[in-house]
Design brief:
Blueprint (H helix, E strand, L loop, with lengths): L1 E9 L2 E2 L3 E4 L8 E2 L4 E4 L1 E6 L12 H11 L1 E6 L10 H11 L5 E6 L13 H7 L1 E5 L8 H14 L3 E4 L9 H16 L6 E4 L4 H12 L4 E5 L1 H5 L5 H4 L12 H13 L4 E2 L8 H5 L8 H9 L5 H16 L6 E12 L18 E11 L2 E5 L6
Parallel strand pairs: 1-4, 1-5, 6-7, 7-8, 8-9, 9-10, 10-11, 11-12, 12-13
Antiparallel strand pairs: 1-2, 1-3, 5-14, 14-15, 15-16
Helix pairs in contact: 1-11, 2-3, 3-4, 4-5, 5-6, 6-9
Length: 380
Amino acid sequence: MQLQNVRVLGPAGLSPPTSVAINAAGAADRDASGLILSPGWLDLHAHLRDPGFLHKETLQTGATSAAFGGFTHIVAMANTDPVIDRPELLRELVARAAALPIGVSFVAAVTMGLEGRSLTDAAALRRAGAVALSDDGRHLMDQATLRRALTAAAEAGLPVLIHAQIERLGKGPESEAAAVTQALEAVESVPGARLHIQHVSTHAAVELIRTAKRHRLLVTAEATPHHLALTAQDVTALGPHGAVNPPLRSVDDRDALRLALAEGVIDAIATDHAPHDVGAKAAGANGFHGFETALPVVMGLGLDERVLYRACVERPREIIGQSIDDEWILIDPAAEWIVDGSSFKSRGKNTPFAGRRLRGRIVMTLCHGQVVMERVMQHA
């Protein structure tokens, strides 16, 4: 497929309009004036609910939804039922994922059952296909267990992804700061360990991570589109749709995240895609659908294009050791549309952006020479 007059997103930002040949079986050449071609985005943090909660999401529905959102690779967390804490469970998921339209990688648990006590076998999980370890959704490890976990993960060549929240302290900013402090102290004492802080949401955590990076600790961090775009002021209007963990924070917290992202203190944007059925969300279940609104929300932040590339394409792959492999998305940055969760390809329709007019949408997603989605654009 030949794309004429397309701008290409890369490490240096957006190119002038140019002609690009893409490996895409059966796809027609097209004039792409006004469109942006980007390597596919990678989402470091998603909940696919499979196995155990198939009414909320499956590998197939999650992968399809991600493709419609512009993600050509997603990373699924381990808090399923059963928890992905044994190699045989992981091997089964990896085998199933091979048939999906996009890349799906898996994070295995740090501790058995996410209970914070007995460590999983990091080396065996790496051999079974894990790209990282995380007890995301829980953080029950004490300092000694966390150090042992970081040691084992380092020996296996895996990063540890930390759910930055001390559970006994609740969901306030002090809980996040305490968890980040604990994790940074632990990684400082374990040579070669790689630590990744998930869904950073507070100014205090940003400053702790900034200081750690100045001291050259091997730490990376992510923030979600919703924490970068929304604040606690939005929660009242959202009702049950505003329930998320960590909670939406203050304007100061949001602005600190945006600055940290621009500076590279926050390395990546990750959705924390958390699909729920209608009943669960109405009852206050935490989490938002993330895949199909991420791109316009992120593009609406007004980021420098070099930051956009780094946070959505480059750094997520570096963190889990993946390369860009013939994965592309075609974006219409001018397309305006009104969010209607019922149209999502995901089984989870729970979005805080319902009814909002967003700008920017995926036209086409391509993986390994195949067009896995193509949308006929209709401007709202």
